[in-house]
């Protein structure tokens, strides 16, 4: 069982948390590089796993290979609506982060889990699918598309509830998932979510017809994360 340091960062600007993720990833990559240079009788240093929970003020992020034409409003309109925008270094296309959306950033050394990105992505999906099941909602995978969906076999009614996009460097991960809980879905009207045309976006609130307690969702996600990844979450505070 792997120990994972857990931090709930509350509401934080996107760039600040992106930089923090980069610091955690770099620390692990540096350790792994040093370990590669060790002599045979020297003891390798351990890497550290992290899981960050956060909510961001409204922001659109575009993956490294995403298409800017999937942003449907101008820079001026972004400023007028007080929405930030970043072109970032994860996979995937355009997505939205905002209040009452649970964003999770696992910084894991997959050498200590399984060096298989397909397994890693499916495992994150499993965490969300199990959380949805706790609310009586059937979460599904959509063939050829990362993330968690509802009603994938009903053409025209497919809707995405959780987007996933990651970066991996020397088997250390960053970025992660965005799970719509009570998210204001109107923000998705200004983009082509994940670059996928003619498919909708939804939230727990929309599916259940009521507001959902964010702390309750967080506890359920943490529980399923520990089971799926065979990990123990150790609560920590944000370092200064």
Write the layout of secondary structure elements.
Elements: E1 2-11, H1 14-36, E2 49-55, E3 59-62, H2 75-80, E4 84-87, E5 94-97, E6 101-107, H3 117-134, E7 140-142, E8 145-150, E9 159-169, E10 172-180, E11 200-201, H4 204-208, H5 214-229, E12 231-235
Parallel strand pairs: 1-2, 1-12, 3-4, 9-11
Antiparallel strand pairs: 2-6, 3-5, 6-10, 7-8, 8-9, 9-10
Helix pairs in contact: 3-5
Structural description of this entry:
This protein has 240 residues and is an alpha/beta fold. It has one domain: 2-Layer Sandwich (BirA Bifunctional Protein, domain 2), CATH 3.30.930. Helices cover 28% and strands 30% of the residues. It has 5 helices and 12 strands. It has helices spanning 14-36, 75-80, 117-134, 204-208, 214-229; strands at 2-11, 49-55, 59-62, 84-87, 94-97, 101-107, 140-142, 145-150, 159-169, 172-180, 200-201, 231-235. The strands form 2 sheets. Strands 1, 2, 6, 7, 8, 9, 10, 11 and 12 form a 9-stranded mixed sheet that branches. A 3-stranded mixed sheet has the order 4-3-5, with no helix packed on it. The protein is globular, with a radius of gyration of 18 Å. The model has no long low-confidence stretch (mean pLDDT 91).
């Amino acid at each position: 069982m792997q120990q994972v340091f857990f931090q709930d960062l509350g509401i934080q600007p996107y760039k600040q948390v992106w930089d923090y993720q980069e610091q955690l990833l770099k620390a692990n990559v540096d350790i792994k590089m040093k370990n590669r240079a060790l002599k045979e009788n020297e003891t390798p240093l351990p890497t550290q796993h992290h899981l960050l929970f956060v909510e961001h003020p409204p922001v659109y992020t575009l993956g490294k290979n995403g298409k800017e034409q999937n942003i449907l409003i101008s820079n001026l309109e972004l400023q007028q609506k007080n929405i930030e925008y970043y072109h970032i270094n994860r996979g995937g296309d355009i997505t939205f982060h905002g209040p009452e959306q649970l964003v999770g950033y696992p910084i894991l050394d997959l050498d200590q889990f399984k060096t298989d990105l397909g397994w890693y992505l499916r495992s994150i999906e499993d965490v969300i699918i199990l959380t949805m099941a706790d609310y009586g909602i059937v979460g599904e995978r959509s063939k050829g598309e990362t993330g968690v969906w509802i009603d994938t076999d009903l053409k025209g009614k497919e809707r995405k509830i959780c987007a996933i996009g990651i970066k991996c460097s020397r088997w250390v991960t960053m970025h992660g998932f965005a799970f719509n809980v009570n998210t204001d879905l109107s923000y998705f009207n200004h983009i082509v979510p994940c670059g996928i045309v003619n498919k909708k976006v939804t939230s727990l609130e929309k599916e259940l017809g009521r507001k959902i307690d964010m702390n309750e969702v967080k506890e359920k996600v943490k529980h399923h994360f520990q089971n799926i990844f065979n990990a123990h979450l150790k609560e920590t505070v944000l370092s200064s």
